[in-house]
Amino acid sequence: MTEEQETGAPGSIKVGVLGAGGRMGAEVCRAVEAAADMKLVATVDQDDSLSDATGAEVLVDFTTPDVVLENLRWCIDQGIHAVVGTSGFTEQRLEQVRGWLTDRPDVGVVIAPNFGLGAVLMMQFAARAARYFESVEIIEQHHPRKLDAPSGTAMHTARLIAAARAEAGLGPVPDATKDEFAGARGADVDGVRVHAVRATGLVAHQEVLFGATGETLTIRHDSYDRVSFMPGVLLAVRAVGDRPGLTLGLDALLD
Ligand SMILES: NC(=O)C1=CN([C@@H]2O[C@H](COP(=O)(O)OP(=O)(O)OC[C@H]3O[C@@H](n4cnc5c(N)ncnc54)[C@H](OP(=O)(O)O)[C@@H]3O)[C@@H](O)[C@H]2O)C=CC1
Ligand SMILES: O=C(O)C1=N[C@H](C(=O)O)C[C@H](O)C1
């Protein structure tokens, strides 16, 4: 092996992947290996030690909601930048991460509920539309091996819509039912109903359905293949070293 193959091209970013054997992790490994300005230096899965990743400058985490915080804490303590796609980030968890970052102001963390560029736009469009429609519901659809419901994307979208409605002075969504079978109206996320569908054949899809008198607006995004997330992941890997602190979502990186 030449020195360049060993260490990457001069100036290349040394990247490690946590959850490397998973559906997303494996795709990220392929994308990093194909990127001329990156070098894959560590792949970590459930039975491996995080210390295998100490040579990385940026760690990408696609693991599970129950282990991601521990991983992130370790990255921050080690001074390694982190790009996180794993779902399950409540406001309370984000606050915890901000707290850890105050002790390491040199470290950058990007947490994105969805790295699909189309999905980022779908969320932006939904936030923009929210003030004009009294009714809104979210229908997310995913592959059946997804552990969590609703999806992180749906939770984030609901929060954006709730914030936009509050800013516009809209009251609660008026579409409550009086008599309903348990679960029929989905989960209430910040006052927005979210319906989670799981079926073989799906990858990751979301519709935001808005309604006003005499009209509806549907904003829909579909990821048919996990390669759809890779341009966003690579964008975040390239940017995170220059963005100390917490960056939530890809929006700021796309401006
Ligand atoms: N932000 C985004 O754009 C996207 C986010 N996601 C999110 O990413 C996460 C992963 O999704 P997906 O790839 O489909 O899930 P998978 O279950 O396929 O992958 C998770 C991987 O993490 C591994 N793992 C578990 N514990 C640890 C640990 N402590 N350290 C290192 N690795 C560990 C698992 O190993 P094992 O199988 O042995 O348990 C598995 O290989 C989910 O939260 C999902 O919602 C998914 C797609 C896009
Ligand atoms: O588990 C998945 O597959 C996905 N998870 C993320 C989420 O929870 O929103 C992103 C995308 O929807 C795919």
Automatic annotation (TrEMBL):
Pathway: Amino-acid biosynthesis; L-lysine biosynthesis via DAP pathway; (S)-tetrahydrodipicolinate from L-aspartate: step 4/4. The active site is at 142 (proton donor/acceptor), 146 (proton donor). It comes from the Bacteria. InterPro entries: DapB_C (IPR022663), DapB_N (IPR000846), DapB_N_CS (IPR022664), DHDPR_bac (IPR023940), NAD(P)-bd_dom_sf (IPR036291). Its EC number is 1.17.1.8. It is an enzyme of class 1 (oxidoreductase). The keyword Cytoplasm applies. Pfam families: DapB_C, DapB_N. Catalyzes the conversion of 4-hydroxy-tetrahydrodipicolinate (HTPA) to tetrahydrodipicolinate. Homotetramer. This is 4-hydroxy-tetrahydrodipicolinate reductase. The gene is dapB.
